[in-house]
From TrEMBL:
<dbReference type="Pfam" id="PF00912">
    <property type="entry name" value="Transgly"/>
</dbReference>
<dbReference type="GO" id="GO:0006508">
    <property type="term" value="P:proteolysis"/>
</dbReference>
<dbReference type="GO" id="GO:0006793">
    <property type="term" value="P:phosphorus metabolic process"/>
</dbReference>
<dbReference type="InterPro" id="IPR001736">
    <property type="entry name" value="PLipase_D/transphosphatidylase"/>
</dbReference>
<keyword id="KW-0328">Glycosyltransferase</keyword>
<keyword id="KW-0645">Protease</keyword>
<dbReference type="InterPro" id="IPR036950">
    <property type="entry name" value="PBP_transglycosylase"/>
</dbReference>
<comment type="similarity">
    <text>In the C-terminal section; belongs to the transpeptidase family.</text>
</comment>
<comment type="similarity">
    <text>In the N-terminal section; belongs to the glycosyltransferase 51 family.</text>
</comment>
<dbReference type="Pfam" id="PF06832">
    <property type="entry name" value="BiPBP_C"/>
</dbReference>
<protein>
    <recommendedName>
        <fullName>peptidoglycan glycosyltransferase</fullName>
        <ecNumber>2.4.99.28</ecNumber>
    </recommendedName>
</protein>
<dbReference type="InterPro" id="IPR023346">
    <property type="entry name" value="Lysozyme-like_dom_sf"/>
</dbReference>
<keyword id="KW-0511">Multifunctional enzyme</keyword>
<dbReference type="InterPro" id="IPR011815">
    <property type="entry name" value="PBP_1c"/>
</dbReference>
<dbReference type="InterPro" id="IPR009647">
    <property type="entry name" value="PBP_C"/>
</dbReference>
<comment type="pathway">
    <text>Cell wall biogenesis; peptidoglycan biosynthesis.</text>
</comment>
<dbReference type="InterPro" id="IPR001460">
    <property type="entry name" value="PCN-bd_Tpept"/>
</dbReference>
Length: 774
């Protein structure tokens, strides 16, 4: 009967214990200081805990055998063998306390001390009993190593410093794994007397106490004689140090992204970060006289997508121009820095190859008339020249051909978040900087160029799971490998206007592919470059948005880019980009083309050159830069097939210029061969081809006039090379005959207006506008 009662009693006690353990767990959720560690484990930045303590989390692998042996010998020799309390030590302490009539020994184990640090109580026997129960509870839930780790993270060192790791970093300037035996012993004795053994103030007393314990270690043969002797002789030159404060912008970003994590392992490389910070700060100091106060830099490892340096501003503590603003994530105008993506898409669409001729001439895109940076026009230029020289008109024309919507879709796939929000209001001007981007987004895009056109998320934190490794993450292909190579091939050219002054023929010029950008109003200067190893994004400007006349991507941002590459990857041994070997249908190859157009040589192409093309994608069309025309012997009259005489005609070739190019040549007084006037006796009416391009006014627009003082409105067109005269019609009534390049004015009336322009070949074009009174 009594056995049954004993069993029931034990079961009851067990159930009560289980319930108490479930409803009253040990509060081990300690608010630690957030530590940002570099790739090599060194601490970049430390933040105070929520309760304003320096309570840094020491990981298990930071508890070295020397540290473990020293602390266990001093505090709890039987730590590995008891279940939270040492009954022998408790009986001995009780006997001594009763004998002396006062408390002389507490007999607390490391587990019990940990409980007391987690739940501070008055030093009474009742508190000691509760600590004993809590110690057992702690032992049931955690391993011995975890309990020791928790203890070392909580022991006090005076002031607001708690934990051995905090003391190690703030007093010795190193992590626990690098502490010597003398330093370890110093840190093991401080928690027992933190008020009297003050490091940096009473170092002589600390050394005396330290050596006393080192002598005990020698007596117990805990460490070898040489180690003990060296530790006793080691001087103590310790002082309170400031907490690490490197990479402040990324550190704050990571702490906000991963709240509650005591240690966040960033991908930064300390040497690269320190070098970048030093170069950026020195460079910002040099350009401050120009009125430019800030810069931001992002350095990415192309193989892993890891951010190895993150400089949000030139000086985090600069209050004059917002040093705490994170320039890596600030939304700015990209200027021309998006053009490489546009050309890459045009390569993939088959619209162009590097030597395709594009027209850099004044053009009206439904009311939008962009200009070049230098306000000059170059006429027909190759695509590689247009991109290398960052010409605006060819870029806008390409975007018009590709379409704004597909271009925005590509940027959205590449995770351009601001452009995603602005999508409905964006137009052709976005390729010249009329949109919002961040340095992070732009650098990630160029990392994609360096990785065969595949964009992957940038890595700011070390992967905690092997399945999340950057190499195993699926990227977003925005360009084919062939198109990405053509972009790199073009951006590697050094004969270009965005080469900084004094860098031409200089050994300081690194081998990189790069592109610059300057926003409207000279508020932002960009330069982003890459080689096989790194992609570096640079932004220079003022966070206030103030423009500076001297600010430009070429002369303000690119010198900083070159300095960074020369410092971080000088004489790189990683080689250079090679022609990608893709599938046969998308393989990059070369072919002969006519240098006048970039098309396949035709009848009038005697000097072909070699150009890249994407097999199965790039356009295949015969060159028509000149066309055959039958004229009389004197070359003063041209014939069509219906009026050419049976004899006496001569077959000649003439330039087959696009209307806008012909108009540009005429306005710029550039001489070119014109097709002679058509046979005046021919009555054949030409048709079927496009008429003159009306450049002013704009189709579908509304124009407001002052009825009391109506202003004249301008008419203009671009006609083909063979056109001598054009005819303007207003609401199908002939208004005036004029030369193709002549500007015509008229006084409008309110209402719907149909404008027509016909050339002397019978070809015509129409547009409709609405005129209203103000």
């Amino acid at each position: 009967m009594w056995k049954s009662r004993v069993v029931k009693t034990l079961i009851g006690i067990g159930l009560i214990g289980f319930a108490l353990d479930f409803f009253f767990p040990v509060p081990t959720n300690v608010p630690y200081s957030t530590l940002i560690a570099a790739r090599d484990g060194s601490i970049l930045h430390a933040f105070l805990s929520r309760d304003d303590k320096w309570r840094m989390y020491a990981e298990l692998d930071e508890i070295t055998p020397t540290l473990r042996d020293a602390i266990l010998f001093k505090e709890d020799k039987y730590f590995r063998y008891h279940l939270g309390f040492n009954p022998v030590a408790m009986l001995r302490a009780t006997f001594r306390n009763l004998l002396k009539g006062r408390r002389t020994s507490g007999a607390s184990t490391i587990t019990m001390q940990t409980v007391r640090l987690l739940e501070p109580r008055e030093r009474t026997y009742g508190s000691k009993f509760i600590e004993l129960l809590r110690a057992i509870q702690l032992e049931l839930h955690y391993s011995k190593d975890e309990i020791l780790q928790l203890y070392l993270n909580l022991i006090p060192y005076g002031s607001n410093i708690e934990g051995l790791k905090s003391a190690s970093l703030l007093y010795f300037g190193k992590p626990p794994v690098l502490l010597s035996l003398a330093e370890i012993t110093t840190l093991t004795i401080i928690p027992n007397r933190p008020s009297s053994l003050r490091l940096g103030e009473r170092n002589a007393l600390v050394v005396q106490e330290r050596n006393r314990w080192l002598t005990r270690f020698r007596t117990a043969n805990l460490f070898n004689e040489t180690t003990i002797t060296d530790a006793i002789d080691e001087p103590l030159t310790v002082r309170r140090r400031a907490a690490p404060q490197l990479a402040p912008h990324l550190s704050r970003r990571l702490r906000a992204s991963f709240p509650g994590e005591p240690v966040i392992h960033a991908t930064l490389r300390p040497a690269v970060q320190a070098t970048a910070e030093r170069i950026v700060q020195n460079y910002a100091n040099r350009i401050r006289a120009l009125g430019v106060h800030n810069a931001a830099v992002l350095v990415v490892d192309n193989q892993t997508q890891e951010v190895v340096s993150y400089v949000g501003s030139a000086n985090f503590n600069d209050v004059y121009d917002g040093g705490q603003v994170d320039g890596v994530r600030a939304v700015r105008s990209p200027g021309s820095a998006l053009k490489p993506l546009l050309y890459g898409l045009a390569f993939d669409a088959g619209f162009i190859t590097p030597k395709t001729k594009l027209a850099d001439v004044p053009t009206n895109f439904a009311g939008y008339e962009p200009d070049n940076y230098d306000r000059r026009f170059n006429g027909p230029v190759t695509a590689e020249f247009a991109l290398g020289n960052s010409l605006n008109l060819p870029a806008v024309a390409l975007l018009h051909e590709i379409g704004v919507t597909p271009f925005i879709a590509t940027l959205r796939r590449a995770s351009f978040s601001t452009i995603k929000k602005q999508a409905k209001g964006l137009g052709l001007s976005m390729i010249l900087g009329g949109c919002g981007v961040t340095l992070e987004e732009m650098t990630r895009l160029y990392v994609g160029f360096a990785n065969n056109g595949e964009v992957k998320p940038l890595q700011f934190r070390m992967a905690v799971d092997a399945t999340l490794s950057p190499k195993k993450q699926t990227g977003v292909p925005i360009l084919s490998p062939a198109a990405a190579y053509l972009v790199t091939y073009t951006l590697t050219q050094i004969t270009r206007p965005d080469l900084p002054n004094n860098f031409d023929n200089s050994y300081h010029l690194p081998r990189i592919a790069w592109k610059t950008g300057t926003s409207y109003g000279r508020r932002d200067a960009w330069s982003i470059g890459y080689n096989q190893r790194y992609t570096i994004g640079v932004w220079v400007g003022n966070f206030s948005g103030a423009g500076v006349a001297e600010l430009s991507g070429a002369n303000t941002a690119t010198p900083l880019l070159f300095q960074l590459f020369n410092a971080l990857d000088d004489n790189s041994s990683n080689g250079w980009f090679r022609n990608p070997k893709g599938s046969a249908a998308l393989q990059l190859s070369s072919r002969l083309i006519c240098p006048e157009t970039g098309d396949i040589p035709g009848e009038f192409c005697p000097n072909p050159v070699t150009d890249y093309f994407i097999m199965g994608v790039s356009r295949y069309r015969r060159c028509q830069h000149r066309k055959a025309v039958f004229t009389n012997a004197a070359g003063t009259i041209s014939y069509c097939a219906h009026c050419r005489p049976d004899s006496g005609s001569v077959r000649r070739s003439y330039p087959n210029l696009a209307p806008e190019v012909a108009a540009f040549y005429q306005s710029s007084h550039v001489p070119f061969e014109r097709i002679p006037p058509h046979n005046p006796v021919c009555e054949r009416i030409f048709g079927g081809s496009e008429g003159p391009l009306i450049t002013s006014l704009n189709e579908g627009s509304e124009y407001f006039i002052n009825p009391k003082q109506p202003a004249e409105m301008e008419l203009g067109c671009q006609a083909a090379n063979d056109v001598q005269e054009v005819y303007w019609y207003l609401n199908d009534k002939l208004y005036r005959k004029a030369l193709p390049t002549q500007t015509v004015f008229f006084r409008p009336r309110p209402g719907r207006l149909k404008i027509s322009c016909a050339d002397d070949k019978g070809r015509h074009s129409d547009m409709h506008v609405v005129v209203k009174n103000e």
